Protein: VOC domain-containing protein
Organism: Gracilibacillus ureilyticus
Amino acid sequence: MRKTNKVFHLAIPCKDLEETADFYKKLGCQLARRYDDRVTFDFFGDQVVCHLSPENIDEKPKMYPRHYGITFLDKEEYDRTLDYAVKEDLPFFHEPMVRFKGRQEEHMTFFLIDPSNNLLEFKYYHDPFMVY
């Protein structure tokens, strides 16, 4: 289990710092730092750094195998994030759905796509033992 003194770090490419900053702020992420070539966010308690790298943008992203996101342990927090994404008119890559219905690993999920075609998944497992 993760200790509270650790923060996961993820670096991803972006094509435009301004639109990237706008997207992540609308998602509720706190801007931590901004430089000429990157922006850093508090992404739900972890660190996401968006590096200006327009030549590395995936023009045809697919959900699998490359995406990142949050697995919520609290359904209300998942619901609030979904409601917030809808309210802020953030672009969905895949609308909310239930995966593995009727199985122990059943979970609710939705995917957003940021301005640089990075895919973000948000999910909630009904059985907390299935998180890992």
Summary: The domain at 9-130 is CATH 3.10.180.10 (2,3-Dihydroxybiphenyl 1,2-Dioxygenase; domain 1).
